[in-house]
Amino acid sequence: MGFQAGFDTSHYPGDSQMAWLKANTNLAWCGFYLAPAPSHSDTGWMNTRATLVAQGWGLAPVYLGQQTAGPGSHIITAAQGSLDGANAAQLAGQAGFAKGSYVYLDVEDGSTPTTASQAYIKAWAQALAQQGYSVGIYCSHVIAANLFSLLQTLELSATPRIWAYKVSTTATHAYTGSTATFPTPDPAGSGYASASIWQREQNCTLSLPGAPVTAMTVDLNTAGVGIFG
How many angstroms separate the CA atoms of 105 and 125, rounded? Predict the structure, then answer.
């Protein structure tokens, strides 16, 4: 099985920047932020799907729901999970993602999920699935197995997917590798053997001579070929 390089960044880089990246690097897919979500108000990605698909990008829709700590909204209940799962499905449809597409709930907290967090995640997943979308979770590799097992208790029609993060630093730093050919390691290297996607660098600044925007801070990822619509 082959693997593809990808990236995510919370604010849309612009059509011309995305076209340049597709033409001048091996980046093949990107995160797509559904909004307005409880912990992500910027709607910059929302009307871009048709343009990005035409440019050849694979897309991974991300939903920043309730968070247990740090920035964002913090209503961690099953009832809110149901509301947010339905909201994620509505936003995915509004953005143009077909039923069956995987939508990833962003779980920023890498510590062991509390009982309330587990209830929120299960309710979110169930509500999303009831609207015809497939469930993905973005989370630390440390808790990936636990969250996958949690989702399995729901007997979802599509196998859940895990987007696992394992990085050496979260501080903003310059990327020193080639920006024409990014590495494409197996997502199993994330520390969770069944990961579909591995976020392997966070907050790295790319130097892109010739691009419309010559410095761009992103997270870098790798994923299995063929998992994006």
Answer: 8
